[in-house]
Amino acid sequence: MVVIVVVVSVIALGDGDETTTVAPSASTSAKSPQEQKREAQGERADLTSFQLDDRSQAGITDVWVAWAIKNSSSEKSDYSWDWEAVDASGTRLENGTQLETDVQPGQTARGDSPTSLKGVKGIKLNITSFNRTASF
Q: In degrees, to the nearest 5, what angle opens at C-alpha 82 toward C-alphas 113 and 71?
């Protein structure tokens, strides 16, 4: 009995390495390309839509950014992200920060904000940073 207790103690104490690795899954079901993309993007994938919306009419320029956020976490969340609008040559025309707060789990929040852009043709939107935090 004494020998067994000593061996168990040595095994239980180990060498102090507390790192873990995930065991391979026995599942053979493949994930869809959308699921794989969402996993690769992490929290950023919650920003399901971010685009320019040209509301110009009667010769008056009126370009907005519009977005949709879907909270895929299990807790109420706040989102903030920085963006830039660049032309085809890479010149930054405008940048900004957007904020959505108190988005419930599974909920989709939509928003929009005006810009000073003169048009949308040839303009590309880039997300330069993205953060999700639990809201309290």
A: 80
Q: Give the C-alpha separation, 45 to 49, whole Å.
A: 9
pLDDT digits 0-9 by tens, 83-104: 999 999 999 999 999 999 999 9
Closest CA to 110 of 53, 50, 22, 21: 50
* pTM greater than the 0.70 cutoff: no
Output the six-digit token pair for 54: 């040209």
Q: Using the 8-state DSSP alphabet, how is residue 12 labeled? A: H
C-alpha angle with apex 3: 2 to 5, nearest 5 degrees? 65
29 pLDDT more than 80: no
The strand order across the sheet containing 77-86 reads 92-103, 77-86, 124-134
